[in-house]
Description:
It is built from 3 helices and no strands.
Amino acid sequence: MSLAEVRLQEGESIESALRRFKRKVQAEDIIKDVKRHSFYLKPGAKRRVKQALARKRARKKLRKESD
């Protein structure tokens, strides 16, 4: 696993480097991965969460199609 790394360019401000770093972290889904590994879900609980998300997506898709 590689960490997001941003090197300061010549004459670049800290704020712009921080913005580049945040974009890179978001693009690499590092935050999502950290949240996923921050606690343990039993396999049954993981399955229920996955099914609930699928139901939510299906309802959203149905609602979008009916409009």
